[in-house]
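Page header: ASSEMBLY MODEL / three components / 216 residues total.
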Amino acid sequence: MEPGSAEQIRIKETIGYLFEDELLKEIIQLSKIKHLEAEETIINIGEKIPFLPIILSGTIKVVRENDQGEDLLLYYIESGDTCAMTMQCCVKSTLSEVKALAMESTDLLMIPLEKMEQWMSKYASWRAYILQSYHYRIQELIETIDAIAFMKLDERLLKYLKDQAKLMGTLEIPVTHQQIADDLNSSRVVISRLLKQLETKGDIKITRNKIILKNL
DNA sequence: ACATTAAGTGATT
DNA sequence: AATCACTTAATGT
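Prediction written out in full:
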């Protein structure tokens, strides 16, 4: 990557606060930017990941998939974050247990895997970043486990909508009932009916291809 | 105007 | 809460 380029400035702006200067220099030198369109898949279950992705912009959705190809939403990864599963894969060189795809147009910073270990011992800020990232992902995972195990579907649905709104930074969520059903591993009919209830309660407004949240 | 896709409904398990 | 079978409504060509 050329010094002083627009890309380099962008990298500094988005993840610069995370790392010490020297490490940042290395990152800029070694990594490539990869652009993904919405819906594009980064990794599938069973694939090996040749790099560590850090998100510059956009959002990644991480899902677990059953043998029928149905997805269950695990968590999202936002700008500045990285993928916990990938980190595990590269250290132990195992295969991915999850599928990850872009929710919107997304830019990734791809870091060569060999660097991971070196940097772990070389840079305190890298260690802190990786550990904290792990911590966040596990927390989020526990949150979704709680939701699946203890919450009724209607509560889960409302949580889903609120999470989505926070993530996209808008109360108008562009989503179909079918997509929600897929994410929550439910069926379209059930979601439609629960949404109807929420609308009657005044929590949301339903339009075609869009749900409008009345309040967080 | 017609086909396609999203969303609503009633009955059944 | 899920599934079936069907209707109605919105949208693209």
